[in-house]
């Protein structure tokens, strides 16, 4: 079962209600299913996820044409092997393998996050989503956040994409902006809204807009946590998201025209 599939939309981790995106943003072409699929990190991070469920996720990823799968560190090796096999059989473009570090609470020692990232890359991950030490953001200790990001950045090769999870439901806009700047200074490629596991909630249009104001055009912006419909996904993209972390990828994509 995909992570969060057993949660109703308004439970912890769900995306905040957003303005209806039914009216297309002026000047933006209609979003097509294949284009949105390439923006998706198809995600399974449920603590009890089995190997069988990870293999099903990878098969689905290949079928849907998503940009990446995102799995727990313990499943990276399996996912990377499965994606490679699926690509050979189906002759479809390769989905990247992403994983998480310091997940979901973020209060692991920096040295543990750095080693977790290094091992994940050795196992086949090319994208790493690290959770910041959220207490540092509550304390507005931006230097500590930047230092930790630098440590993780230095633990993996330059080609690895580093995404920094801020748990934005806990933060006012000014803190989101400051954390995004610390992520940029620390060498991250992306900032990401949420783990999808915090009781305060998941992605919101408010947070994505603040992130876009801070680093849009320079860093990628990943909206994740509680996005269950094409309307919610569209609202995130219109707010500035360039990636979507979704466990409900199939349902979301079904709402976009081919
Ligand atoms: O990192 C991504 C999230 O865990 C995905 O959250 P979701 O299951 O609410 O889509």
UniProtKB/TrEMBL annotation:
Stretches for region Disordered: 1-28
Localization per record: Cytoplasm
NCBIfam families, alphabetized: deoC
GO biological process, one term: deoxyribonucleotide catabolic process
Organism: Frankia canadensis
Annotated keywords: Cytoplasm, Lyase, Schiff base
EC number(s) given by UniProt: 4.1.2.4
Catalytic site positions: 129 (proton donor/acceptor), 192 (schiff-base intermediate with acetaldehyde), 222 (proton donor/acceptor)
CDD domains noted in UniProt: DeoC
Gene Ontology molecular function terms on file: deoxyribose-phosphate aldolase activity
Functional summary from the UniProt entry: Catalyzes a reversible aldol reaction between acetaldehyde and D-glyceraldehyde 3-phosphate to generate 2-deoxy-D-ribose 5-phosphate.
Taxonomic superkingdom: Bacteria
Similarity remark: Belongs to the DeoC/FbaB aldolase family. DeoC type 1 subfamily.
Record keyword Cytoplasm present: yes
InterPro entries from the UniProt entry: Aldolase_TIM (IPR013785), DeoC (IPR011343), DeoC/FbaB/LacD_aldolase (IPR002915), DeoC_typeI (IPR028581)
Pathway(s): Carbohydrate degradation; 2-deoxy-D-ribose 1-phosphate degradation; D-glyceraldehyde 3-phosphate and acetaldehyde from 2-deoxy-alpha-D-ribose 1-phosphate: step 2/2
Name of the molecule in the record: Deoxyribose-phosphate aldolase
GO terms for cellular component: cytoplasm
SMART domains: DeoC (SM01133)
Signal peptide: none
Catalysis: reaction(s): 2-deoxy-D-ribose 5-phosphate = D-glyceraldehyde 3-phosphate + acetaldehyde
Biased composition range(s): Pro residues: 18-27
């Amino acid at each position: 079962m995909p992570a969060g599939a057993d949660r109703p939309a308004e439970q912890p981790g769900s995306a905040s209600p957003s303005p209806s995106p039914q009216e297309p943003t002026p000047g933006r072409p209609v979003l097509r299913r294949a284009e949105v699929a390439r923006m998706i990190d198809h995600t399974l991070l449920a603590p009890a996820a089995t190997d069988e469920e990870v293999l099903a996720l990878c098969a689905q990823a290949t079928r849907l044409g998503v940009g990446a799968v995102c799995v727990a560190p313990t499943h990276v090796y399996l996912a990377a092997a499965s994606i490679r096999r699926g690509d050979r059989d189906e002759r479809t473009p390769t989905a990247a393998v992403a994983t998480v570090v310091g997940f979901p609470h973020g209060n692991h020692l920096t040295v543990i996050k750095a080693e977790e990232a290094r091992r994940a890359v050795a196992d086949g991950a090319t994208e790493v989503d690290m959770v910041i030490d959220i207490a540092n953001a509550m304390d507005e200790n931006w230097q500590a956040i930047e230092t930790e990001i630098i440590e993780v950045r230095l633990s993996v090769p330059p080609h690895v994409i580093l995404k920094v999870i801020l748990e934005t439901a806990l933060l006012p806009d000014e803190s989101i902006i400051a954390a995004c700047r610390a992520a940029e200074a620390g060498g991250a490629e992306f900032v990401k809204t949420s783990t999808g596991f915090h009781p305060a909630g998941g992605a919101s249009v408010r947070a994505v807009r603040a992130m876009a104001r801070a680093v849009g055009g320079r860093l990628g912006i990943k909206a994740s946590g509680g996005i269950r419909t094409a309307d919610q996904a569209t609202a995130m993209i219109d707010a500035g998201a360039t990636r979507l972390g979704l466990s409900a990828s199939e349902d979301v994509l079904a709402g976009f025209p081919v």
